Amino acid sequence: MFAGIRQAGAVWRASVAEERKQPKAKLKGQELEFLPAAVEILETPASPVGRAVVFVIATLFVATIAWGWFGKIDTEAVAQGKIIPGGRVKVIQPLEIGVVRNIHVRDGQSVKAGDLLIELDPTESDANQERLAQDLVAARLDVARLTAMMQREEDPMTAFRAPRGISPVMAATSQALLEEKLHEHEAQLASIDSEISERKAERAMTQANIKKLSGMVPLLAERVAALETLAAKKFGTRSAFLQLKQDLVEAEGNLSIEKHRVTEASAGIETLQRRRASLIAGFRAEANQELAEALQRVSGLAQELRKAEERNRLRHLTAPVDGVVQQLAVHTVGGVVQPAQSLMVIVPGDQPLEIEANVLNKDIGFVEAGQSAEIKVESFTFTKYGLLHGEVMQVSADAIQDEKEGLLYTAKVAMDDDRILVGDKWVPLTPGMAVTVEVKTGHRRAIEYFLHPFLKYQDEALKER
Known about the structure:
- This protein is α+β, with helices and mostly antiparallel strands.
- It is 53% helix and 21% strand.
- Strands 1-10-14-12-11-17 form a six-stranded antiparallel barrel. Strands 2-9-7-4 form a four-stranded antiparallel beta sheet, with no helix packed on it.
């Protein structure tokens, strides 16, 4: 059996070899159509389009991988913002509650710095300013009067000099008050001086009596001694002796009394002199105290008057810069405005426009001054009207809390142009327009963009609690 199989195999190999030696005729067109289906498929040559498609797909795949690895794409931080004037809009607000007297502007009106915008009724502030001015004048007159009163080397009436700007009537009134005070003080001193003179006269009279008695007592004592000797020898009466003795005792007693009176008079004079000195010192101390209080009043009233003048000046609301009036909120003369109420805003007209953009907290680490940016104005579709270019000028050092976006940082972006071409006409940009700012923060490989989500999930996966 095996011999038969080997013989059949040898025959098959010989026939195949013979077939290969003979040139194979290629069937074409209709010849293939008459073959069996399986043979037709085997005999039909493969289409070159398939090979080309596979080659193109493989080439594109390799090119994509190469581009993803070697190609670079820009990374951007996107921030929403709006156009603002370079000097920001100026909000016009009253300092205090007031009644509108006049409105001098309207919405859209151009104004110059210093132009009057709104007048508030100054009746109350004028009255307060006038009262303070009068109080200040009175305080300055008091200072002048008390300063003159303190003079020692010059007559106070001559030394009194009214401040500048004081009316003659007020100066005369103050001078009369000074004269009255001086006369009152001088009258008190004169009264004390009169008492001192009386005491001195009494003391002088007493001293004269002492001198007289001092001369009489020795004589009386001598007469008493002589009369006593005579009485002892029976040459005189005892009654005469006793009478003379009584006169001596009275004279000695009167001398003692008069000496005591001299002491009392001297003590009284010293008391009056101390009282006089105390009166002078008290007068000067009182004047000095009043002068210090008057100077303090002058200082305080001067400050209050300056504040009142400033408050009155602020009743006239003026334009702080050149610009255009917008958002006028008051239109009624006689209406009441509240403190810090926004009455209007002035949009500066001579300031370049810039953008105030809000950078998200996740992007702030890559945004810095000097980076270039592309600006899309929402009012003009960028695919049709194009983009604006700019540069980051400043980034805030701290974030502000936003209810929707969370923590946001403020960035200032300068624009290369403040107008945009619409058709064949340049349209100027205006403050308040919403924009989207795309800040170029760097570059990265294109493949990183596609691999980033997978790398992120790989790093964070299987770590949840």
